[in-house]
Amino acid sequence: MKKSISILGCGWLGLPLAKAMVKDGFTVKGSTTTTDKCETLLMLNIQPYVLSIDEEIDGNLDHFLQSEILFINVPFRKQKPFLNSYKTLVKAIEKSPIKHVVFISSTAVYADVDGEVTEEENFKVNPAKKDLLLFEDLFKNNKNFNTTIIRFAGLIGGTRNPGNFFKEDKVVQNALTPINLIHLEDCIGIVKTIIHQKKWNTTYNAAATSHPTKANYYTLATKQMGKKPATFIEELTSFKIISNQKLIDELNYTFIYPDLIEALKVFKN
């Protein structure tokens, strides 16, 4: 029987992931918030669904969830109605054939600790992002299906060229802080590895291995595009370094772009 996956959110990450899963022999259902994108999905052998999750869920959710695996990559909002919509989604998953969920979260949940942070349960929470943990808990605490949480660092690759992140007239504070980023191709590779190895009911940090300073990295990225870089205030007030060791150890994953400076070579003007 052909394996199946539903991808909630065919955007910057969801669409290339959907294409990769089709290539791997999966039946793929993909959601979009606009009908304009449906034809594109069909041409890529992705079954399109117009779905939106806001104050309520709009679209044929029950049919969309007729798969074995669900990939969730929808930007969250703090508002209570949005959380309630996710509770509705969880109830729908419970009634569906979905057995496994990959939930995309963010390393923004970690507060600056002036050192390395891991996935351990007793980590210091970033107060501005504590609501994101409520969304994580909705899924990982549910016993009706298996959930793996991936906390991605800052996202680069595809349409996200780091040379465009800071304009010339921008003044950037705390510029000696080490950065935490991950390339799109590694995002896809990690998701695929988790699915193929069936690594469920756990949480992984996903960030490149190197952590150059903000000043060094973004100056190089901007100059590579032939633009004048922003002004970086070379100070170090607070920082965190996202550890990817658990992911490397448990998945035996080899990063495509472990070195962020070297990865700049793939970006074009």
From TrEMBL:
Coiled coil: none annotated. It comes from Wenyingzhuangia fucanilytica. This is Uncharacterized protein. InterPro entries: NAD(P)-bd_dom_sf, NAD(P)-dependent_oxidoreduct. One of its GO terms (molecular function) is aldehyde dehydrogenase (NAD+) activity. The lineage of its organism: Bacteria, Pseudomonadati, Bacteroidota, Flavobacteriia, Flavobacteriales. One of its GO terms (cellular component) is cytoplasm. PANTHER family: NAD(P)-BINDING DOMAIN-CONTAINING PROTEIN-RELATED, PROTEIN YEEZ. Gene3D superfamilies: NAD(P)-binding Rossmann-like Domain.
